[in-house]
């Protein structure tokens, strides 16, 4: 990228150079080595895709155009496996190196180990950290086709290009200084002790050997490698998917077990699949006894009528079950994704009893007030001429008291 940028800037010093590709490493490369500002900007394919989408531009509606500067077969093949080497073949031939290619992290590590152990000699190695080379880069648009489909398209595109081209400018690679200095960038990793590794494994819920799934989902080959990375602050325990899933499931289970509400799951025919301990307590049943039974047997038929007609309906009703001497708020909805009904019951038996007791007390108060009114009226009739005004006031006060009690 930098070499290309240098050539462009040399032939056109005012050019604004933008590298576009699926490679995030180019951002780092431009930032780290771009001392002469040969690359002005780096955009990834997914950034371009987002930009086009936000601008409401659909490439399918645009006419296809050729690139301004033609390329030859080697240039067009660059992003696929062996593409880099095809551009260096003449150099490799001169020095008599044998060509080798590795793509993907594991393959690159393997070949580098062989080289560092002096097991391989006289080779020119093309290393691509991304599987499939550049076309397997991480910043492809999310809806990109299969990498083999992309490879075929690139190779089809390249095979129609000329084998070689005259340089479009007087600037040639030979006349340009494309040298670059690489610096060592070693990372010194502290080595954890066995106890420290075990402690980290425990914090990831891995207590037994069988807990170490070595599934590679976190990007590390083994759980121990992952634990070492955690020790070196290069990873976090939450980046272990099985651990996070297990934890989430255990939180869900805890809620199911200890919530103060009854929870029931029913199949589409409303037969009981699962109930939590609170449901057993409120409905005075054991799960084993009601498993597979229709919910009607517990709450009656009427309440379920609405939801039978329309699965999107959500039932929210107060329900008093006399046989069990309980009152509940009954909520029921259908979870389409799981194909189950979920029922939540809140026990309001005590609140209902309190309301009943309060109403009974009100009634007694009313009866007593009425009795006083009746008595007063009788007395008033007898001594109307003497106490008429006072009796009328008493009646007003007692009537007001009665109204307050009724409210
Ligand atoms: S994701 Fe978890 S279980 Fe899988 S290898 Fe990494 S640490 Fe081990």
Can you put this structure into words, describing what you see?
The protein is an alpha/beta fold and 407 residues long. It has four domains: 1-70 and 165-186, no CATH class; 194-250, no CATH class; 266-347, Beta-Lactamase, CATH 3.30.450; 352-406. It is built from 16 helices and nine strands. It has helices at 2-11, 25-33, 45-54, 73-77, 83-95, 105-116, 147-159, 194-203, 223-231, 241-258, 277-283, 287-290, 296-299, 305-309, 349-382, 384-406; strands at 18-21, 41-44, 98-103, 123-128, 262-266, 272-275, 315-321, 326-335, 340-347. The protein has a five-stranded antiparallel beta sheet. A two-stranded parallel sheet has the order 1-2. Strand 8 and strand 9 form a beta hairpin. Helix 8 packs across helix 9 and helix 15 (349-382) runs antiparallel to helix 16. Bound molecules: iron/sulfur cluster. Iron/sulfur cluster is lined by residues 212-218, 220, 223, 226, 240-243.
Largest sheet: 5 strands, antiparallel
Q: What is the tally of beta strands? A: 9
Oligomer: single chain
Instruction: Estimate what percentage of residues fall within beta strands.
Output: 5-15%
Shape: elongated
How many structural domains are formed by the residues? 4
Helix/strand/pairing class, anyone?
alpha/beta
Helix content: 40-55%
Order of helices and strands: HEHEHHHEHEHHHHEEHHHHEEEHH
Map the helices and strands.
Blueprint (H helix, E strand, L loop, with lengths): L1 H10 L6 E4 L3 H9 L7 E4 H10 L18 H5 L5 H13 L2 E6 L1 H12 L6 E6 L18 H13 L34 H10 L19 H9 L9 H18 L3 E5 L5 E4 L1 H7 L3 H4 L5 H4 L5 H5 L5 E7 L4 E10 L4 E8 L1 H34 L1 H23 L1
Parallel strand pairs: 1-2, 3-4
Antiparallel strand pairs: 5-6, 5-9, 7-8, 8-9
Helix pairs in contact: 8-9, 15-16
């Amino acid at each position: 990228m930098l070499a290309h940028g240098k050539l462009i800037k040399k032939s056109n010093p005012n050019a604004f150079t933008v590298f576009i590709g699926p490679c995030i490493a180019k951002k780092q490369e431009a930032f780290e080595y771009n001392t002469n500002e040969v690359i002005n900007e780096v955009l990834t394919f997914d950034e371009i895709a987002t930009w086009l989408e936000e601008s409401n531009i659909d490439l399918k509606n645009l006419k296809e155009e050729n690139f301004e500067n033609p390329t030859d077969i080697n240039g067009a093949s660059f992003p696929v496996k062996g593409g880099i080497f095809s551009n260096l073949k003449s150099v490799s031939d001169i020095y008599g190196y044998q060509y080798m290619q590795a793509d993907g992290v594991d393959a690159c590590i393997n070949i580098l180990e062989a080289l560092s152990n002096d097991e391989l000699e006289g080779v020119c190695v093309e290393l691509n950290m991304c599987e499939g080379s550049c076309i397997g880069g991480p910043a492809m648009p999310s809806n990109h086709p299969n990498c083999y489909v992309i490879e075929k398209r690139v190779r089809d595109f390249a095979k129609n290009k000329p084998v070689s081209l005259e340089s479009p400018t007087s600037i040639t690679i030979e006349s340009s200084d494309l040298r670059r200095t690489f610096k060592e960038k070693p990372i010194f990793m502290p080595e954890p002790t066995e106890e420290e590794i075990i402690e980290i494994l425990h914090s990831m819920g891995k207590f037994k050997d069988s807990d170490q799934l070595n599934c590679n989902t976190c990007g590390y080959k083994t759980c121990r490698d992952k634990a070492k990375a955690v020790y070196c602050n290069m990873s976090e325990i939450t980046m272990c998917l099985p651990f996070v899933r297990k934890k989430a499931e255990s939180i869900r289970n805890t809620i199911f077990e200890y919530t103060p509400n009854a929870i029931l799951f029913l199949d589409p025919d409303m037969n009981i699949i699962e109930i939590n301990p609170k449901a057993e307590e409120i409905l005075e049943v054991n799960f084993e006894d009601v498993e597979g039974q229709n919910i009607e047997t517990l709450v009656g038929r009427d309440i379920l009528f609405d939801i039978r007609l329309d699965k999107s309906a959500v039932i929210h009703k107060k329900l008093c079950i006399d046989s069990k001497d309980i009152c509940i708020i009954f909520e029921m909805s259908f979870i389409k994704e799981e194909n189950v009904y979920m029922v939540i019951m809140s026990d309001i038996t005590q609140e209902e009893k309190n309301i009943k007791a309060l109403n009974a007390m009100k009634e007694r108060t009313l009866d007593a007030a009425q009795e006083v009114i009746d008595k007063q009226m009788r007395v008033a009739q007898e001594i109307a001429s003497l106490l008429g005004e006072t009796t009328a006031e008493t009646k007003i006060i007692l009537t007001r008291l009665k109204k307050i009690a009724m409210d």
